[in-house]
Amino acid sequence: MIKVVLRDDDQEFCRMLREKLQRGDDIKVFAAEGDQDLLDLAAGIQPHVVVMDCMHPVERGIGLIQALIERQPEAQVLVMSRIEDDRFVHKLREVGAAYYLIKPFQPETLVERIKLVHYYHSAELNSRYGRARAHIQQFAADCLSRLGIPPHYQGYHYLLDAVLLASQDQSWLNGITKHLYPAVARQHGATAGQVERAIRYAIDAAWTKGDLDQLHTLFPYAIDPAKGKPTNSAFIAKMADIIKMRFSLP
Q1: Domain count, the chain
Q2: CA–CA separation, 104 and 243 (whole Å)
Q3: Largest interatomic CA distance in the chain
Q4: Per the confidence metrics, is the pTM higher than 0.70?
């Protein structure tokens, strides 16, 4: 369960977002009604993610973000605003905001960004994953290399991120094209289409140049009969399962 504190001066907009965010069973939202209420609420519930508007004047919003991060260093701050200015975005990064989302946006987009911020930046998704994070990443990287996907392939890096996300939360596998590819793409300054093609190329290379015995051992039931190799989604899902089993993840 991802605990989220939501703060926006527009109470109607805040109410709508809260209703949308709580439709799933993996996000719990607490709404703050003012600056001090935001700080007090965050101190009380220890949220994973704080979603807040950087209100005018900008100095007020920046100061609130700084105060929040100083008091709750484990919380990730996702800022939403209509301000489109590189200097403003740079300032947000300087004070420690994890993500910036430009208004207007669809509520579904916010749900995806909250998960992205939490899974990429949170120090601990769950106790087991938190303790083994570095080992999990190294294990996944070693698996890709052994399967014949070298680190100099761009698809290697996209696959690594995709597999790590899926191993933490299987819901990413329910929307690979609409959610997982775009999430990985944003981390690399790419497009979802580029991520999909690079992953496909990396998998093709593994089945062309890699250890076929090991590949077929790992993917006996994930092969596309028409192509003789797994689809992107089957490959990512299988790798995520291997990681979950190896590290006894829930």
Answers
A1: 2
A2: 37
A3: 62
A4: no
